[in-house]
Amino acid sequence: SERTLVLLKPDAVRRGLVGEILSRYEAKGLSIEATWFGQIDAATSDAHYAEHVERDFYPPLRTFVTSGPMMALVLSGESAIDVVRLLNGATDGRVAAPGTIRGDLSLSNRENLVHGSDSPESATREIGLWFPDLV
Ligand code: ATP
After folding, report:
1. Is 48 one of the annotated active-site residues of the chain?
2. Is 112 one of the annotated binding-site residues?
3. Which residue of the set 115, 123, 126, 130 is catalytic?
4. Over 90: is that where the pLDDT of 114 sits?
5. DSSP state at residue 16
6. What pLDDT was estimated at residue 62?
7. Whose alpha carbon is nearest atom 29 of ligand 1?
8. Which residues, at least 6 apart from 2, have a Cβ–Cβ distance to it below 8 Å?
9. Could you give the C-alpha distances from 99 to 19, 49, 87, in angstroms and in order?
10. Has residue 26 got a pLDDT over 90?
11. Is the pLDDT score of 135 beyond 80?
12. Other beta carbons less than 10 A from residue 95's beta carbon
């Protein structure tokens, strides 16, 4: 079994899609290990997106992810990292495959509802950032 860090971004909360998205992860067979709900500040955004802070798309992304409450989750299961990214779909909701969360529910490259860790190293780093009390 493997753990991954998932974010349901502020658009998911604003649009009332938290239940819909959680249902997809649960129906796939992933387990919810930990949850956090709240609004983050710019420093937490910068820490989470450390690899993107110098990118052109980052300032508006930071404005977006700090714009309202969101949910952070640790999900676990067989190949959880890759499975979550398959369920999430391509970054840009406009081209994400139908059947994926972004493909079915997002029409945006930025407001794309979800985040999932992209590697075991990222998952360890991100879980440590969002859930420092989790061993
Ligand atoms: P995530 O890491 O959130 O699961 P991802 O791995 O598909 O998504 P990244 O390339 O890591 O995408 O980008 C992180 C986030 O930055 C994206 O989820 C999206 O919200 C935003 N983003 C990425 N590229 C762009 C872009 N060209 N324009 C606007 N926003 C972008």
Report:
1. no
2. yes
3. 115
4. yes
5. T
6. 98
7. 110
8. 76, 77, 78, 79, 80, 81, 120, 123
9. 16, 27, 8
10. yes
11. no
12. 11
